[in-house]
TrEMBL record:
Transmembrane regions listed in the UniProt entry: 33-50
Name the record gives this protein: Uncharacterized protein
UniProt superkingdom: Bacteria
Entry keywords, A to Z: Membrane, Transmembrane, Transmembrane helix
InterPro entries recorded: DUF5325
Length: 56
């Protein structure tokens, strides 16, 4: 069994939280909140993909 990579786990949880926040923003009908959460989610996801490629 492999060890848990906590930094990547944290990034994955952060991305899920950002996209969950988009749902909250939709419920609140707050466009700035939706855009900020969306861009933050995609930014964190892109950072995680870059880190994954560097590890190879």
């Amino acid at each position: 069994m492999q060890t848990i990579q906590y930094s990547k786990l944290f990034l994955a949880i952060a991305v899920v939280a950002c996209f969950s926040a988009v749902g909250v923003g939709i419920a609140l009908r707050s466009l700035p909140f939706i855009f900020i959460a969306t861009f933050l989610g995609f930014g964190i996801m892109a950072y995680g993909i870059v880190q994954k490629r560097k590890d190879r």
